[in-house]
User: Fold this.
Amino acid sequence: MTADSASSANEDDMLLPGGGTQSFQPAPKSLTVLPLVFIAYFCVSGGPYGLEQLASAAYPFYTVIFLIILPWFWSLPPALMTAELSSALPSNMGYILWCKTAFGPFVAFQCGFYRVINQLFDCSLYPVMMYDNMTLVLQNAGINMGSFGIKMAVTSGAMIINVVLNIVGVEIVGKASVVFGIIILAPFAIMTGWELPRFSFKTLYSFPPYAIDWPVFISIMLWSMNGWDQLSNVSANVKNPKRTFPVAMILAIALVIITNAVPMAAALCIDRDWADWNEGYFPTVAAEIPGKLGVALSYTMLVTACFSNFGQCLVSLCTVAESVAAMGHRDLVGVRWLTLRGRYKTPWPAVLATGIIITALTALPFDAIVSVDIMLYCLGLALEFIAFLHLKFTRPDLERPYHFPGGKVGAIIGTIPGMSTDSQNEHRESGSGQIANCTQHG
Assistant:
């Protein structure tokens, strides 16, 4: 960057090759591989919760095989795309900067608008689901939490804690994600360990007499593996992005596969009434384990589901607040106060404003939130893939510490599964219960 171009930029902006801008306020590079893995895990999954309906939609064999194989075709390309562009453009503007560098401010605004609104609605789902899980937990203790006032008090309290943690910084978000991940996965590890001596592969090869509901099965399966691009919103906080990003992405995909497929296989062998499986069925499966262990695991899974929802909300707020701050730049929305950062180098006005909006959205009907969430996600993701391909072909001068495997041909092939997300949109909007199940992972 020349001295003239530097002087022409605002103090919170810097010019990129080709005329793009990014946040100039330095972010602490505190994220190493392990925190980034779990931030990615909560962006995409948050645990096996929400996958139960796969058992009633298809046969056990298909469920487990798809959970193992599909992520390498569906999740790996967007994960590696994020690794390439986040290491080439290490700014917390993330995918907004990708589109800005590729096509300029107008397309960047479109992508930012779609994804910010999508993430706001998406993040508002998690406090509501946490409240629903808390209601189930406390009902067992004879405590009624069925009023609207209690719901808003719980969701507001959760958002206040999330806002405070995000203002303190992304490092605490990363550490909290690791802790929540261990808490969430512990009961599934115990359930799997109990079933291991009794496990039978023959059970998974069973073919029940009901028909496979392919639209529901594929919709849940694909949506439970989306969200990798949100990692771009913490790219400026990553130490040694050339190594950290690709390693963290591969490990996160492996973690998603292991923690989804292995507990699901064990649960399918414990409870073989697969036609009865629906949302929130894992505690029912755990309760079938004899003795006090089954009772304890069933109750623990209800509690850890709350941790899953809280962790997803925490990470989602972290990423969407950075997108809101990015939209505040002068050549997008131009709301300068959204770009301000405090002593922790976090965009605290954007975090606070985002937290208030999300809290208000929790009062909306659940199904309405989901329908808007899915439609906008598809629109934003399409622009991101197009920007990735455009930069691949037109900006060979852009320094890329990490390259998508296979060069330009690999990039084209890799974006095909992600672009097909739009074809799932109509079905996802047609069944709110199925969508809600999927969105817990999106």
Remarks:
- The first helix runs from residue 3 to 8.
